[in-house]
């Protein structure tokens, strides 16, 4: 379904309603406002696709705004990563903005609020302020400093800015209503002192504005028409509006905050703070570890921007928080890769097969189709010789009729090659099969058109010629957490649910056409899944990541339980 055909979501209905009521289409403007305190994750992808999608739908500008008001947690590395990820997802922002660009304007407005009797410096400790906050059913208590004179407030606030006070000594608060039923309206803090260098403004400032004071005013400065955020900000809307009321001029656009549900993905956590712990505590190697639900992790894992976008489109925008099963995301990537990924053969758990009636000195380069879903993908050659590998799981000495793979006395087809029949096998001292002897039918070559080649055999196996095989490191990933929602348990830390088997590293034996593959190359190992070349690869050794299996193996495991 193309974007213009799908039904409107509730946010688009709000916009349509505004247009109907006379809001000018030319004045529509959106923003995506990440805090640069970590890497973007799959939850952010929903917000990115929503905001940039609206930009495309209404041909309106979308800003990328860094919400950088907390120098303690923010870094340039994160700014760079966020820009890279938004671009990779396929979106173009109109202008790159920073809340820190507005520090001076915000300060000037605060002075204006103080002069207007709407803000004051409070000199209590944070504990004292907390006890005065009241409860949702009980009014708060006014601070003894609430009625300081304008002069005293100006003097103290300027001294705060000049760096004359330690952290925590004074804060600037908006003077709203300590009896409001909305706790956020009970004289919220606008500024606190932080003696920390900022990644952009360095040591220019030692007072930093709070989120609520910054966000709406930044929207207003940028003339954002619709400021879309997640549901946890629903209660903040009243304060967002109050702060706007103080500064909005008539002829300008007044931004409108509307909320939508946060997207959570099963078997992982989508919070930068929690993902940071996985990195810091060494559970994963980095923010872009292929097990991470970060955009960069998914990219390295082999996800395409298309599959992430269609995932976001499919789940759409909701009004209530809920958990999306990760298999939906996997379905999208499988769907996409099925169309574009060339098919190759690779054996991950090798068992040697000797073709007894094939000459030791011969080899053949057989024709193989690159992608049955895409004729233009063309053909390649794969080498065949006397000794090949198949998967251990594809051979049994004896098995029932439902086992369509190789068993003694029975035939299977080798993909792109010949029909073989298992004659005997050799075992080690523990009784494990270490070699199978087979005979091949020389007239049964795939695509040769002979009667023998058209013979129906039930099973087709992938294989590689042992002397031509390319050894590679293959990284098999599994869910990072064993629990469906690891961070929703009241009495347990989400780290307790880390899956100890989320990574398995093995050696794979691959067809030689893969030699020299570029980083990022995506292929289907036939019958096994989709894999891509990891940046850890060197000219000596390729490293492959399993993006996703061909089928949903977890669904099966969970059904059984
Ligand atoms: P985190 O807890 O991961 O840091 P956040 O909301 O603090 O999340 P921001 O960088 O402030 O992260 O988010 C930028 C934008 O993305 C915000 O508008 C936020 O509402 C939205 N967003 C963040 N997480 C999700 C999610 N899981 N689903 C949908 N939107 C999200
Ligand atoms: Mg945040």
Can you tell me the CATH class of the largest domain? Alpha Beta
CATH superfamily of the largest domain: HUPs
The computed structural class is: alpha/beta
Mean of residue pLDDT values: 95
Short key terms for the protein model shown above:
24% strand; 7-stranded mixed beta sheet; Glutamyl-tRNA Synthetase, domain 3; binds adenosine-5'-triphosphate; binds magnesium ion; Rossmann fold; 561 residues; 29 strands; alpha/beta; Ribosomal Protein L25, Chain P; elongated; disordered C terminus; 13 helices
Give the structure's gist in a few sentences.
This protein has 561 residues and is of the alpha/beta class. A seven-stranded mixed β-sheet has the order 12-27-28-29-25-26-13, with helices on one face. It has a seven-stranded mixed β-sheet with strand order 23-20-21-22-14-17-24, with no helix packed on it.
Characterization of this structure:
By secondary structure, this protein is of the alpha/beta class. It has 4 domains: 10-99 and 212-326, HUPs (Rossmann fold); 103-211, Glutamyl-tRNA Synthetase, domain 3 (Alpha-Beta Complex); 349-462, Ribosomal Protein L25, Chain P (Beta Barrel); 470-560, Ribosomal Protein L25, Chain P, CATH 2.40.240. It has 13 helices and 29 strands. The strands form 8 sheets. The protein has a 7-stranded mixed beta sheet, with helices on one face. The longest helix has 17 residues, at 42-58. The structure holds adenosine-5'-triphosphate and magnesium ion (MG). Residues 33-35, 43-44, 46-47, 67, 229-230, 262-263, 270-273 line the site of adenosine-5'-triphosphate.
């Amino acid at each position: 379904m193309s974007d213009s055909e799908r039904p409107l979501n509730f946010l688009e209905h709000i916009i349509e309603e505004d247009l109907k009521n006379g809001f000018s289409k030319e004045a529509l403007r959106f923003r995506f406002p990440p805090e640069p305190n970590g890497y973007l994750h799959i939850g952010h992808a929903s917000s990115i696709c929503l905001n940039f999608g609206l930009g495309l739908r209404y041909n309106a500008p979308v800003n990328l705004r860094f919400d950088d008001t907390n120098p303690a947690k923010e870094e340039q590395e994160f700014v760079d990563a966020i820009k890279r990820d938004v671009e990779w997802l396929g979106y173009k922002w109109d202008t790159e903005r920073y809340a820190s660009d507005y520090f001076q304007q915000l300060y000037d407005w605060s002075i204006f609020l103080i002069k207007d009797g709407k803000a004051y410096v409070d000199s209590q400790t944070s504990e004292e302020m907390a006890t005065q906050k009241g409860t949702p059913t009980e009014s708060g208590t006014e601070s003894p400093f609430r009625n300081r004179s304008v002069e005293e407030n100006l003097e103290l606030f300027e001294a705060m800015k000049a760096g004359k006070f330690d952290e925590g000594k004074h804060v600037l608060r908006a003077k709203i209503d300590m009896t409001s039923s909305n706790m956020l309206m009970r004289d919220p803090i606008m500024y606190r002192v932080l003696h920390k260098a900022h990644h952009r403004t360095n040591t220019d400032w030692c007072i930093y504005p709070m989120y609520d004071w910054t966000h709406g005013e930044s929207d207003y400065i940028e003339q954002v028409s619709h400021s879309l955020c997640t549901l946890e900000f629903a209660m903040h809307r009243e304060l967002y509006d109050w702060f706007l009321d103080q500064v909005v001029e008539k002829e300008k656009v007044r931004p409108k905050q509307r909320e939508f549900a946060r997207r959570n993905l099963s078997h992982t956590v989508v919070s930068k703070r929690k993902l940071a712990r996985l990195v810091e505590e060494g559970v994963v190697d980095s923010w872009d570890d292929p097990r991470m639900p970060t955009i960069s992790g998914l990219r390295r894992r082999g996800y395409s921007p298309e599959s992430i976008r269609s995932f976001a489109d499919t789940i759409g925008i909701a009004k209530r928080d809920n958990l999306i099963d990760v298999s939906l995301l996997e379905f999208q990537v499988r769907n996409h890769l099925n169309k574009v990924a060339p098919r190759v053969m690779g054996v991950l758990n090798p068992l040697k097969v000797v073709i007894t009636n094939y000459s030791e000195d011969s080899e053949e380069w057989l024709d193989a189709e690159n992608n049955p879903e895409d004729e233009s993908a063309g053909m390649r050659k794969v080498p065949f010789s006397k000794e090949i590998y198949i998967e251990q799981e594809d051979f049994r000495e004896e098995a029932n009729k439902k086992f369509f793979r190789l068993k003694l006395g029975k035939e299977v087809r080798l993909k792109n090659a010949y029909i073989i029949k298992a004659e005997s096998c050799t075992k080690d001292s523990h009784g494990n099969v270490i070699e199978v002897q087979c005979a091949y039918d020389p007239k049964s070559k795939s695509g040769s058109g002979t009667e023998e080649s058209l013979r129906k055999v039930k099973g087709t196996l992938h294989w590689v010629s042992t002397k031509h095989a390319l050894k590679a490191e293959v990284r098999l990933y599994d869910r990072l957490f064993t629990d469906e929602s690891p961070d929703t348990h009241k009495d347990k830390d989400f780290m307790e649910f880390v899956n100890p088997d989320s990574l398995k590293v093995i050696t794979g034996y691959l067809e030689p056409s893969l030699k020299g593959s570029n980083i990022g190359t995506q292929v289907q190992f036939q019958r096994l899944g989709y894999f891509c070349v990891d940046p850890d690869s060197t000219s000596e050794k390729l490293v492959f990541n399993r993006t996703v299996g061909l089928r949903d193996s977890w669904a099966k495991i969970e059904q059984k339980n």
